[in-house]
Amino acid sequence: MAAKEAFWVQTEDWHTAGEPFRIISDLPPHCTTTGNTVWERRLNIINQPDHPLDLLRQSLCHEPRGHADMYGGFIVPPNDSGAHFGVLFWHRDGFSTACGHGTIALGRWAIAKGLVESVKDGSVKVVIDVPSGRVTAEVNFENGKVVHVNFINVPSYQFAKDLPLNISLPGSKPLQLKVDLTWGGATCASVDARAVGIEIKPSNAQRFIEVARQVKAEVGTRGEHKDTSLYTIVFFEILSDTDEAIEQRNVTVYAEGAIDRSPCGSGTGARVATLLAQGKLNGDKKLIHHSIINTTFEARVVSQEQDEGSEFPTCIPEVRGNAYLTGRHNFFIDPSDPTFPGFFLK
After folding, report:
1. 208 and 119 in one domain?
2. In the prediction, which pLDDT does 2 show?
3. Coil, strand, or helix at residue 322?
């Protein structure tokens, strides 16, 4: 049941490469969800209209406490004792199955909170159950300070190649695009930004949102995989390709029209799997992935295998980045507020 009385909720806010991540570790007593796994807990929320955790998501994500591109997570019990905790990722439109930048932030948060003991030099692993499986945030230290965090993802693989799409942009001739679909905890579509003809820069963010919405609609049911629909569209451009690294810039549009300020953790992992399938990212070769605001992740293949009968290889991607604390908040949620549970204008 949704709360009828007003209540307080505390959050801790981080950002990873510019993308926000709001963490709620102590849920109000009325905000509970059942299930034996994080996946089941997520389904419990999305299958119940006006679920208390969905109303809390809206209250903390939408205006006036958040914004249309806000991201966050509710800390919940893990699937079993093999993980330190579980998390329900959320955004403007609901609850996602994966979030790489959030996993990196959660690694820093877990160390800061003492949930996992830090070291002076070396690395520690924060194991997290997310809806799509079990992931790891490997927090790396030098002289007692965190220098980077590696997000180690679930098994990832391309599952569709060169899907033809017809896109119509205002004032332009219709475009014929080809997209690849990849699973990396969520379904990601890769689109060559050169084929779209829009430069990847902040002033073009809204144009990319418009194209992404068309891509999502045109892909339709072809983007359905593991009981989920197409979640992210990564528009990429190639900057360089050497024996050591592929360097690309991207803008990632997720959910129903939000822009990722980071290079997108899950999207970067999906790009690793796609490039592996294309034979462009083997051995120790890295992907250097820049965002629309020019922040950077580095990624590589940790391990790979070729399942019998499968057209594409499966890999474990590792995405390297870092997160930074931006603030702690104590929000007052009042159901009698005429703006409850929140709003956004785009």
Report:
1. no
2. 52
3. coil
CATH number at residue 17: 3.10.310.10
Cα distance between residue 218 and residue 236, in whole Å: 19
Bridge partner residues of 141 (DSSP):
122, 146
Sign of CA dihedral 100, 64, 93, 180: negative
With contact defined as beta carbons under 8 Å apart, do 157 and 179 qualify?
no
d(CA 103, CA 61): 18
Q: Say if residue 341 is preceded by a cis peptide, omega within 30 of 0.
A: yes
* Predicted TM-score (pTM) above 0.90: yes
In which residue are the tokens 């439109």 written? 93
Query: Which one from 99, 188, 264, 315 is the annotated catalytic residue?
Result: 99
Quick one: pLDDT at residue 1? 43
Instruction: Residue 45: name the closest of 74, 79, 70, 83 by CA.
Output: 74
84 & 227 share domain: no
Q: Please tell me the total number of residues recorded for the chain in this structure.
A: 346
CA distance 64 to 131: 28
Domain count, the chain: 2
Residue 344 included in any domain: no
Question: Which residues in the chain land under pLDDT 50?
Answer: 1
Nearest Cα residue to 130 out of 100, 110, 175, 105: 100
CA dihedral for 323, 327, 330, 331, sign (positive or negative): negative
The one-letter code for the residue type at 11 is T
The pLDDT assigned to 334 comes to 97
DSSP output for 38-91 = HHHHHHHHHTSTT-HHHHHHHHHHSBTTS-TT--EEEEE--SSTTSSEEEEEEE
Q: Active site includes 31?
A: no
